[in-house]
Design goal:
The chain has 423 residues and is α+β, with helices and mostly antiparallel strands. The protein has 17 helices and 14 strands. The structure holds a DNA duplex (9 and 7 nucleotides). Its EC number is 2.7.7.7.
DNA sequence: TGGGGTTAT
DNA sequence: ATAACCC
């Protein structure tokens, strides 16, 4: 047994943030190695969602329209990335690999993971208890000098060695490159991981924390401060991190509520006590499609029927049973394309839940019926309508009762890579 | 601007 | 059910 760090003293946490380089493009280059040295973009609808570094050299940016990207770079090769299955599968392989080192792995999107490596660092500290040579891996933020008598510095340096091992394992086993950041909390590890950009890593020592957080030119670059909060802060005259640090907390609490105000003001000082929460298996499975126009009940039904088979396949491979189903729509609006999403959800009838695991039972038709009922709760089908998105989501996943758990559920690993999906 | 995800209220 | 956040 190990004495936990928290029980010992106030030794700092050591957190690694691992961020794969242009993830979708890398996966596509593995699937088709001929694309390796060519400018490559991954397209969803009219958008190049990401591109490799060859393309970036030629002026292509993330989330650029296909039109602009082709103008900038006529040689650009585009592959369709609307089906996320290959990316999702590779993504879980990365998370599982990190899980071999340590149980505390938290996913953020498909291409980022936080790992709490405090315990691994402690173990190495105790092993090499003599003063064997400690050498940093990768960059040190600000080029700050390391003080070998400072145990916090030593812990972070050991953290940088572990991060290097993570990146080497991810490259050796999966062929993927990425960046890493090592620091004393999630916020800082994430911010510092981006300082040297493809395929490099950086460690932050506490003395440079303020330099890092103040280097952010706009508050929306602070993870946790999003679009809405930024807008409201701007009306208060808060434009950068220093403004937020100095802003009166009482006024901030009145504008944003105590919880948000206190959290983001701590973030502005680089403070973040949120734990690395092991992600485990997914909480939901969803599949969506966007389009120019969908305006009849028949079309809606067809779209739903397209979405369902892949979703059911993913759920089947997961082995758990969903107890809730949700339909989300987006109605056309010339002003603001976000925000006008609505959804309706309902419990899945028990007799249908039973049939989820089984082969060849037709669960599709009754589900379509349920989803069309949910649709009619949102849209009066006697009036004209204009949808631009449909999404189906299964959630409230529960393990099968052990009595009737088949081979699928029994042999699946904890972090099962869900798969199937797409259009 | 896509096609996903999460947690808080 | 929505709103906020993340990629």
């Amino acid at each position: 047994h190990s004495k936990s760090v928290s029980a010992r003293s106030a030794a700092c946490r050591v957190i690694a943030h691992v961020d794969l380089d242009c993830f979708y493009a890398q996966v596509e280059m593995i699937r088709n190695p001929e694309l390796r040295d060519k400018p490559l973009g991954v397209q969803q609808k009219y958008i190049v969602v990401t591109c490799n570094y060859e393309a970036r050299k030629l002026g292509v940016k993330k989330l650029m329209s296909v039109k602009d990207a082709r103008e900038k770079c006529p040689q650009l090769i585009l592959v369709n990335g609307e089906d996320l299955t290959p990316y999702r599968e590779m993504s879980y392989k990365v998370t599982e690999l990190l899980g071999e080192f340590c149980p505390l792995v938290e996913r953020l999107g498909f291409d980022e993971n936080f790992v709490d490596i405090t315990e691994i660092v402690e173990k190495r500290l105790n092993q090499q208890s003599g003063c064997s040579r400690v050498c940093v891996s990768g960059h040190v933020y600000n080029n700050q000098a390391i003080n070998l008598h400072d145990t916090t510095h030593i812990r972070l340096v050991i953290g940088s060695q572990i991060a290097e091992e993570f990146r080497e394992a991810i490259y050796a086993r999966l062929g993927l490159t990425g960046c890493a950041g090592v620091a004393s909390n999630k916020l800082l590890s994430k911010l510092v991981s981006g300082t040297f950009k493809p395929n490099q890593q950086t460690v932050l020592l506490p003395e440079s924390c303020q330099d890092l957080i103040r280097s952010l030119d706009h508050i929306q670059k602070v993870p946790g401060i999003g679009y809405k909060t930024t807008k409201r802060l701007e009306t208060l005259g808060v434009r950068n991190v220093c403004d937020l640090q100095a802003f009166p907390s009482t006024v901030l609490e009145k504008e944003l509520g105590v919880s948000v105000a206190q959290r983001i003001q701590k973030l502005s000082y680089g403070e973040d006590d949120s734990p690395v929460t092991p992600t485990g298996p997914p909480q939901s499975f969803s599949d969506e499609d966007s389009f120019k126009k969908c305006s009849s009940e028949v079309e809606v039904k067809e779209k739903i029927e397209e979405l369902l088979p892949n979703l059911l396949d993913r759920i089947h491979k997961d082995g758990r049973q969903p107890h809730t189903v949700r339909l989300t729509i987006r109605q056309f609006s010339s002003t603001d394309r976000w925000f006008n999403r609505e959804s309706r959800q309902c419990p899945i009838p028990p007799h249908l839940i039973q049939k989820f695991g089984k082969e060849s039972s037709n669960v599709i038709s009754p589900l379509v019926d349920i989803l069309m009922k949910l649709f009619r709760k949102m849209i009066d089908v006697d009036l004209p309508f204009h949808l631009t998105l449909l999404s189906v989501c299964f959630s409230n996943l529960k393990d099968l009762p052990s009595s009737k758990r088949g081979s699928i559920g029994f042999y699946l690993k904890q972090m099962s890579p869900p798969s199937g999906s797409g259009k």
